[in-house]
Amino acid sequence: MGDVRLENFKVADNLLAGIEFELTDNMVDGYTQVNGALVIGRSENADHYTNSTASHGIIGPRTENFQVHNAKFYNFDIAGKAALGSCSHCFSPPSTDSGARTVTFSNLYFDKSVLIKIRYEEPWRDIFYDLDGTLTGLGPKSWTTPYWKHNDQPGCKVDLEVYDGLVCDSTMEIRRIVFYNYAPDIFTIMTMKIL
Is residue 182 in a domain? Predict the structure, then answer.
């Protein structure tokens, strides 16, 4: 997707995701976005198969520059359903994405029936940036990211039940680090951690 905005979409009872973006083009941050969505995990119309599937409301792309604003989430309260997911199609081996993509959020509403706000997907390295604190509850310019011990810092708390990882206040800044054209190439396809 390039300069595409889904405005005021209403989705419910989906098996994988209500809204999903796999790839965003190399656009200005925010050109690709969801704005004004109403996302329902299960409604009275849902069948048994839908109700027993651990789906997501919105799954973000495995690329940068995606945003979600003014979205409302309801009835994510059974079968491990989560309002937000990450890294679309990264579970597929051909995707070969390293993760740690940043998605920006603002003005989100989660009904009390939303038990899981985030369930990250492979490779569990995403960065969710909360402009106004409506995702994290920790105020403007806060963050969430999957839990890795080396990322656990002062200013962050571990919440695996609701946020599936770390939730960090504005004293922290989470960024993606990528090394290109390194030599020698003995570290190819190896997981790297920075201490």
Answer: no
* Residue 173 forms part of a structural domain: no
Q: What is the number of structural domains in the chain?
A: 1
Domain limits at 150? 5-168
- How high is the mean pLDDT in each 10-residue block of the chain (195 residues)? 88 93 82 95 92 93 93 96 91 70 96 97 92 98 95 95 97 87 78 68
Within a domain: 108: yes
Positive or negative: CA dihedral 45, 51, 53, 56 = positive
> For residue 177, is it within any domain?
no
